[in-house]
Structure formats: structure tokens, C-alpha cells
TrEMBL record:
Signal sequence, renumbered to the chain: none
Protein name: Crystaline entomocidal protoxin
Gene3D superfamilies: 2.80.10.50, Galactose-binding domain-like, Pesticidal crystal protein, central domain, Pesticidal crystal protein, N-terminal domain
Keywords, sorted A to Z: Sporulation, Toxin, Virulence
InterPro entries assigned: Galactose-bd-like_sf, Pest_crys, Pest_crys_dom-III, Pest_crys_dom_I, Pest_crys_N_sf, Pest_cryst_cen_dom_sf, Pest_cryst_dom_II, Ricin_B-like_lectins
Domain of life the protein comes from: Bacteria
Organism, as annotated: Bacillus cereus
MF annotations from Gene Ontology: signaling receptor binding; toxin activity
Family (UniProt): Belongs to the delta endotoxin family.
């Protein structure tokens, strides 16, 4: 990207991908056949195609292995957490698995993947030394695991204690001596994944000594020394990884794009040589080079760095562990081309990558397909795409769209329910012509336009059949295409597409449980105002931060909606905040429930840093204890003075943790024909059909039961959505539909997400709630029991107005 030297900001702007676009080839290719011929000749041979395929596999499998390690750590609970070497033994097999006869193959693959991402070859001497040290680490950890197994079984046996003390010391020394070989000067970037994964093992080892050292018979002073070393190494390793990542971004930014390399980019053949449009493929290829490093190194390095603070057993001492949520958003490969007004890396970055923001969940996608002009050179043209988004805990949605000038009429509007999109594929020509969407299990959801064959999701965790991320955002840039003869051409359409993804550890609600400590990223709030802004994180926090500037008004600046699980209600919790502050400050924290404050406090906050943020910039504030008595409450914040304060995470720690019960098995889906009776009255839901005045907009009212077909409903369950369509028996093509903002009507069935309903047990003599699938924070609502009263769709509040009973008809 050296033609764009005006860009000098390399902060994290998180990104991701399943169809890996390999990088500009290494100066010294690892395949022996390539070593004596030039790059241009190599790329035009079958050897060149093989080279590209091998490197794609290396990157993809490396990312998948790292995601598998991360998933294992995130899911760790007892007895894994309560055993020496418990977590180490779970992730050991990801790092030392047999690829043929080479036990170090995974580590070599990590090196080769990053070499490819930044076009920098590690010398044979540096590689050989690193591999040799990794073999020593492997042997030491195997011996440590054997000693740990002995002690876990015989915790009071003197010889078992002595054995694990001796082996811990030996293993720790081995890793301490090995770590410098993974950060050799000049090769820090291509070795970064190796360094991060080795550092992760070292920190887990030190955690064991702090957690179990007293039981092993270590003197208290020695255990304290290891605690000091754990804190020191966590800070050192974290800062090294984030700084080296930033250095790698600069290297990736300077890579040279070549959109006519069809071994690397076969989907551009022959379009990138088009005499009119070919030049517009350079910018997206250039952006992908930079973004590929950014995305893949977040997945392989920064995600694991984000969990390291929880390895401190004195701060995180809950035996049930911690529920960690990664809030960063990553972006997959951009496909297509732009136009004269957006054909630069900066334009792509500005349009496709969202600035720091509160977490949003993607509820629906809408694609406007326009009619084609005579002799237009594309088979399908999209003129607009709309994201329907929702903040966590909010009952309202909002839209963000990308469009081109409306020069042609709309042919079709495609609506896609987007709450469970785990993967997608594209149909590619000169620009993308269609999108096929799949759920977390890769089961098809729907296709818009032509069916696709180019996968563009995020890799699965190694060993898992489910997708690791879910779609969070779609953006597109304008291009132009030829249609007929002047002045009919060029004509605009959306031709360059990008996709954002969130990790599945990030839940759609802020639910606290009875066993694990729940970490809620501050960016999962539903409001940030009065001087509160979302800012880029330093790379080590797993996402962005909420910055609170001093505000002396009466309102709060950051509000987070929390819902305890059913068993968590009434139980006591401790509220803790992870924060950084640029100056001494005073922070208000309060628990707010339905127009009333309960627990509140104003807390003195000391300055924790100046200049750039580091690991040690972050501290913890114990706020207050509270009882989770309500079905829903808010935790709210305000910086009264000083600061600014940067809120990273809010932690809900059970005071007396107990196991969270297994969720009950869902009941068998309802089938057949029913009447819907309201809790407020014995009257029934009726479809008032008046097609002369309001065709396709039949009103739903409450009426006396006349046993008419307009008062009877057929329930049809969708297994993929886990939701129902509710069809009128009088006209089964009319289904109960939420019509924004708050209407409930019978509308012709188009399988819109707003035409599905989640039936939830109200726990009251057979009554249920009907929550809308498109926005599950909204529910069917009956304001009054008066005859003729219209049903509405209102924020879900579990009131009697929202309770209904299905009476099955014989």
C-alpha cells in the first residue's frame, strides 16, 4: 500500500474471513521448486498455483487451531479449573499434534502463516532455534502434566507434592529460557503467533503455582514470588503482543497489490484486465492485504491476549470460572470493485469498517434489487442494502443503509432474517451477483440473487462443527457498469461488498448466572451520552472501551441492561469494574430499577496512566454488593469530575456461587388449530378482514367468541428459527405480523422475520408470551379488554397485557 502513505493510523479496527486471500509471495518461497525462478514465472505455473493453495491452507488451519484453543479456555469450568495443569492439558493437543511424524508441525504452520501475511521469511537459523526450543517446552510440559496427574489423584501424598514442585520449577525454567527465541530481533512479526501461544502456556503454568503452590508445600514467600512473576509476565507479554501487532500492521499496509495474479485471486479472472473497469479492482485487493493481517492476527493473537487478565487467581478466584465475552468486530474479505469516487483504501476503510460503537446485533437484512437496463452487462443489480440493528437490552431497532442513486425501479425487495447467520457464500462475476446465507450449523437459511460458491465467513474452531462467529454488519460501495449505448451507460449499482462478524462468546443479552463470574463489556450498554463515547481499545481488551468525560448534570452517561437467570434472581452479587483513567476522578455507579435507584455509590478513582495505554493502565474498582431481585435492571455510570475514565468491563461476581441448573428441555412444538385467548378477558383474538379498505393489512382485534374461522389460528413451527408462523384459518396466506412501529396485523405471508413468533411459557397456568422473532424485545400486547380493541406490539415487559393462552380445537 505504499501508494497510500498518507495513512498513519494503525489502531485495531478488528476484522475476519473464511475464504483466505493469500498475500504477495515470500521473497524466498518455501517450496524447493520455486527457489530458482522469478515471481512472475512462478505465478504462471502449476507450482505457483500449488504454492498459493498451500499458503491458504496454512493460514486457515492456523486460525482454526487458535480459535480452538481460545474456545477451550473460554469453556473451561470445574473440574478443569480446579486441577493442576487442567487447562494446559486441554489445549496441549492443539499445539502438539501429529502431522505425519513432525510433532512441531503446528508451530511451524503458525510461522508460515504469518510469514505469508506480511511477506517476510524467517531465516533457517531463527526457525531452527525456535523449533528446537519448542521441542524442549513440549517435553517439559509432558513431564509436568504427569506430575500434576499424580498430585491431582494423591493431593496429600508427600512424594507427589515433592514431584510436582520439582517438575514445576524445571518446566518454568525451560519456558523462561525458551521465550527469547520466539521474539528474535527483526523477526518479531512472523514469530508473533508462536510467541503468543507459548506465552499463554507460561502464564497458565505460573497460575498453577499461585493457585496450588501452598497445597504443594511451597513456602508462602515462594508462592508470593511466583504471583509477582505472574503479574510481571502478564504485563510484559501483553504489551509485547500489542506492540508487535501494531508493527505488523505497518508491514501489511506496505504490501503491493497485484489484482492480475489469478493464482492468488482466481475470481478476478479476467475482470481485473478489463480496459475500463480493471483498475478499480486494485483498491479492494490492496485493502484485503492489510485487513487479512489485521483480522487473522486478532484471531490468532489478540483474542488469546484478552483472556490473560483472568489467569490471576487472586482476582479471579471463583471456582466456577469466568464467562468472557469478546466484543471486537472483524471483517472478512471484500469482493467486487468500486468506482472513481471510492477507489482507494481509505474510502473502503471509511465505508466498510465501522468506527468504535456500542455492540449491535443484526436483526434483519434487506436487499433492494433494481430492474436492469437494456443490454446491461450484469445479470442482477442491487441498489440498496439495509442493516436492521439493535443495541443490547433495547426494545427498538434502527437502520443503516448503503445505496446508489435511484435511476431504475425496484424489481424485488429481499428480506433476510439475520439473527443466526453463521456463514455465507457469494456468487461472483465482475461484481457479486448473489449471497447464500447459512446458520451456525451451516444449514441453509436463504439465498438472495444467484447461489454462491465463494465462502466468506470465519473459520470454525478446530474440532467443532459449528461456526465460531455470527454476521453483524453488511456494507457496500457503489460501482458502475455498462448498459446499452450512451447516454444509457454507465449505470450505478452496489459492486463492492464487505461483511462484519462478532465472536459467538458475545451474547445477545447481559444475563448473569449463579455459578460463573459474568464479564459484560462496557460496549454492551444500550446508551452512551452526555459526554460518553466509544473509543478504540488498546488491543488487549478484546474490544472497544467506553470513555466517560466529566459531566456534572443529573443524568447518567452509560447504561447497561442486565437480566438475571431464573435461578439468579434474589441471589447476592458483587459488582466490580475494570477501568483505566487519565486523571484522578470521581465515578458514580448505581443500580436502577423502574424509576428508582437502589444501590448507589460515588467512588474516588486514581489516575492509572498517561500517554499510551498499556496492560498496567487497567485497575479494578469494587463498587457494591446487591441482590438480583428483579427480572431486569440497569447498571448506570457517570464521571462526576476529573478523568476521563475508560470503562472496559463490568463484572458480576456471585457472592455464594452455586451450580447453574441445566436449561429445561424445550416442550414439543405446538401443532394444529387454536384459538388465542387473552389473559385480560375470555374473549379471543380475531382477524378483522376488510380487504376493500385495507387489502393485505388485516387488523387484529379482540372480540367475543363467535367460533368463526377468523377467530381460529393454525400454528406452523419452523425448526431452524425455533419460532412459529400463526396463520388465519379463514385465509392461511395471512399470517400474524409485526408491522413497525407497533401494529399487529394479518399480512400476506412472505416469510419475513417479523412474521414469526417465539412462544415463551409465562409460568402461569398455561399462559404464554408471544415475542416477535425479528425483535425478541417486543411482544404481542393487548392494551385493553374492550371489544374491538386493536392488538399492538410493545416492549416485552411480562405484564398481564402480554399473556395469552392457546386453546386447541378438536
Amino acid at each position: 500500500m505504499n501508494q497510500y502513505n498518507n495513512k498513519n493510523d494503525y489502531e485495531i479496527i478488528d476484522n475476519a474471513d473464511m475464504y483466505y486471500q493469500p498475500k504477495y509471495p515470500l521473497a524466498e518461497a518455501p517450496c524447493s521448486e520455486l527457489q530458482q525462478i522469478s515471481y512472475e514465472k512462478v505465478m504462471n505455473t502449476s507450482v505457483g498455483r500449488k504454492y498459493q493453495a498451500v499458503q491458504q491452507v496454512n493460514v486457515g488451519e492456523s486460525v482454526s487451531a487458535a480459535l480452538g484453543i481460545l474456545a477451550t479456555i473460554l469453556k473451561a469450568v470445574n473440574p478443569t479449573l480446579g486441577a493442576a495443569a487442567g487447562v494446559i492439558s486441554k489445549i496441549f493437543g492443539f499445539l502438539w499434534k501429529q502431522f505425519g511424524t513432525d510433532s512441531q508441525a503446528q508451530w511451524k504452520q503458525f510461522m508460515e502463516a504469518v510469514e505469508y501475511l506480511v511477506n517476510q521469511k524467517i531465516t533457517d537459523a531463527v526457525r531452527s532455534k525456535a523449533v528446537s526450543e519448542l521441542a524442549g517446552v513440549q517435553n517439559a510440559l509432558e513431564l509436568y502434566q504427569e506430575a500434576a496427574d499424580d498430585w491431582n489423584i494423591n493431593p496429600n501424598d508427600t512424594s507427589a507434592k515433592e514431584r510436582i514442585r520439582r517438575q514445576f520449577s524445571s518446566t518454568n525454567t525451560t519456558i523462561e529460557f525458551a521465550m527469547p527465541s520466539f521474539r528474535v530481533s527483526g523477526f518479531e512479526v512472523p514469530l508473533l503467533t508462536v510467541f503468543a501461544q507459548a506465552a499463554n502456556l507460561h502464564l497458565l503454568l505460573l497460575r498453577d503455582a499461585v493457585k496450588f503452590g501452598n497445597e504443594w508445600g511451597m513456602p508462602a514467600a515462594e508462592v508470593e514470588d511466583y504471583y509477582t512473576r505472574l503479574q510481571k509476565r502478564t504485563a510484559e507479554y501483553t504489551d509485547y503482543c500489542t506492540n508487535t501487532y501494531d508493527k505488523g500492521l505497518k508491514q501489511a499496509y506496505d504490501l503491493a497489490p497485484n489484482p492480475t495474479d489469478y493464482n492468488k485471486y482466481p475470481y478476478l479472472n479476467p475482470y481485473s484486465k478489463d480496459p475500463i473497469y480493471g483498475k478499480y479492482y486494485t483498491a479492494p485487493v490492496d485493502w484485503n492485504l492489510f485487513n487479512d493481517f489485521r483480522r487473522d492476527m486478532i484471531l490468532m493473537v489478540l483474542d488469546i491476549v484478552a483472556v490473560w487478565p483472568t489467569y490471576n487467581p487472586k482476582i479471579y478466584n471463583n471456582p466456577y470460572g469466568v464467562q468472557i465475552q469478546l466484543s471486537r468486530e472483524v471483517y472478512s474479505t471484500v469482493y467486487g470493485r468500486g468506482w472513481t469516487n471510492n477507489s482507494s483504501v481509505d474510502a473502503i476503510e471509511y465505508t466498510l469498517v465501522r468506527p468504535p460503537h456500542l455492540v449491535t446485533e443484526l436483526k434483519k437484512l434487506t436487499f433492494d434489487e433494481r430492474n436492469l437496463f437494456e443490454a446491461e452487462t450484469v445479470p442482477i443489480a442491487f441498489s440498496k442494502v439495509t442493516n436492521t440493528l439493535q443495541y443490547v437490552g433495547s426494545s427498538t431497532t434502527w437502520e443503516q443503509s448503503f445505496s446508489v442513486p435511484p435511476i431504475a425501479s425496484i424489481k424485488t425487495v429481499h428480506n433476510v432474517s439475520a439473527t443466526d447467520i453463521g456463514n455465507l457464500s457469494l456468487s461472483l462475476g465482475a461484481v457479486p451477483f448473489g449471497f447464500s446465507f447459512y446458520n451456525k450449523n451451516d444449514n441453509p437459511i436463504t439465498t438472495v440473487g444467484y447461489s454462491g460458491g465463494w465462502w466468506n465467513g470465519i473459520p470454525k474452531d478446530e474440532g467443532s462443527n459449528q461456526n465460531s462467529h455470527h454476521l453483524s454488519y453488511v456494507a457496500a460501495l457503489e460501482t458502475q457498469t455498462t448498459a446499452g449505448w450512451f447516454p444509457t451507460y454507465p449505470v450505478p449499482l452496489l459492486g463492492e461488498w464487505g461483511f462484519g462478524w462478532l465472536h459467538n462468546s458475545l451474547t445477545s443479552t447481559n444475563t448473569i448466572v449463579t455459578d460463573r463470574t459474568t464479564q459484560v463489556p462496557a460496549v454492551k450498554g444500550n446508551a452512551a451520552e452526555f459526554g460518553a463515547t466509544v473509543v478504540r481499545g488498546p488491543g488487549s481488551t478484546g474490544g472497544d472501551l467506553v470513555k466517560l468525560s466529566a459531566y456534572n448534570g443529573g443524568s447518567t452517561q452509560l447504561r447497561i441492561v442486565v437480566r438475571p437467570s431464573a435461578t439468579a434472581r434474589t441471589r447476592p452479587y458483587k459488582l466490580r469494574i475494570r477501568y483505566a483513567s487519565e486523571g484522578n476522578a470521581n465515578l458514580f455507579v448505581g443500580k436502577y430499577v423502574v424509576n428508582r435507584w437502589w444501590e448507589t455509590g460515588n467512588f474516588a478513582v486514581d489516575r492509572t496512566f498517561s500517554g499510551a495505554m498499556t496492560y498496567n493502565s487497567f485497575k479494578y474498582l469494587d463498587a457494591f454488593n446487591f441482590a438480583a431481585n428483579e427480572e431486569e435492571f440497569k447498571i448506570e455510570f457517570r464521571c462526576n469530575s476529573g478523568g476521563p475514565i475508560y470503562i472496559d468491563k463490568i463484572e458480576f461476581i456471585p457472592v455464594n456461587p452455586i451450580p447453574e441448573p441445566e436449561p429445561p428441555k424445550p416442550p414439543e412444538p405446538l401443532k394444529g388449530t387454536y384459538q388465542i385467548r387473552a389473559y385480560l378477558t375470555s374473549n379471543v383474538a380475531s382477524l378483522f378482514i376488510n380487504s376493500a379498505s385495507q387489502p393485505d393489512r388485516e387488523l387484529l382485534t379482540i372480540q367475543k367468541n363467535y367460533n368463526q374461522d377468523t377467530q381460529k389460528w393454525k400454528l406452523v413451527y419452523d425448526e431452524g428459527k425455533k419460532a412459529y408462523q400463526i396463520k388465519s384459518l379463514a385465509n392461511e396466506n395471512l399470517v400474524l405480523t409485526w408491522v413497525s412501529p407497533d401494529f399487529a396485523k394479518g399480512i400476506t405471508n412472505h416469510s419475513y422475520s417479523s412474521q414469526y413468533w417465539i412462544i415463551e411459557d409465562a409460568g402461569d397456568d398455561g399462559y404464554v408470551y408471544l415475542r416477535n422473532y425479528a425483535n425478541d424485545m417486543l411482544a404481542l400486547d393487548l392494551p385493553s379488554s374492550m371489544y374491538g380493541m386493536y392488538f399492538t406490539v410493545k416492549p416485552f415487559d411480562r405484564s398481564s397485557r402480554q399473556r395469552f393462552r392457546f386453546n386447541k380445537l378438536s
